[in-house]
Amino acid sequence: MNGNKTFTMIKPEAVAKGYTGKIIDQFIVGGFKIIAMKYVQLSLTQAQEFYGIHKGKPFFDELTQYMSSGPIISIALEKDNAVNDFRALIGSTDPNEANEGTIRKRFAESKSKNAVHGSDSDENALIEINFHFSSKEIIS
Ligand code: IDP
Ligand code: MG
Asked: Over the range 23-54, which residues count as b (16 or more CB within 10 Å of their CB) and which as e?
């Protein structure tokens, strides 16, 4: 059975452009329940740790510098089949390949500045939620 939690961040460019409210609305309309949320700026070291799985890839430095360049919104979400349903809601990594109506199609400006993060597995969703939130901050 698939898990019921996923993790997202509204990325710096989308926050700076004022898309936070519209993006969170789309999470809720899409059936996701917010169980933890905070407004925060990651240090470069925190971004490198969070994206450790991508270390060594050509886009790693650009990604971690970008993700620590300004405030983000980090959110833990709950829904049946959360990881897969959330990835469908946000669309492909590259907004040019994302389906019409998806969050990345609507709000992303490029493959790197692509508006939102989404966990890629149940296991990573829990790791990512625990990276950003203590158990006291999660209201499930
Ligand atoms: P995902 O966010 O759709 O799961 P990943 O492959 O896990 O995509 O990549 C993590 C993040 O790294 C992407 O959301 C994007 O911001 C950035 N990224 C991935 N591939 C590229 C690329 O080819 N060029 C620039 N940035 C990239
Ligand atoms: Mg990923």
From this structure: bbebbeeeebeebbbeeeebeeebbbebbeee
Query: Contact at 8 Å (CB) between 93 and 111?
Result: yes
Cite the active site residues: 117
pTM for the structure as a whole: 0.98
Q: Please check the confidence at residue 85 and state whether its pLDDT lies above 80.
A: yes
Indicate the length of the chain as a whole number: 140
CB distance 53 to ligand 1 below 6 Å:
no
Q: Does the beta carbon of 39 lie inside 6 Å of ligand 1?
A: no
For residue 130, name the pLDDT band (cuts at 50, 70, 90): very high
Confidence of residue 61 (pLDDT cuts 50, 70, 90): very high
| Nearest ligand, CA 11 | 1
Full set of structural domains in the chain with CATH: 5-137 (3.30.70.141)
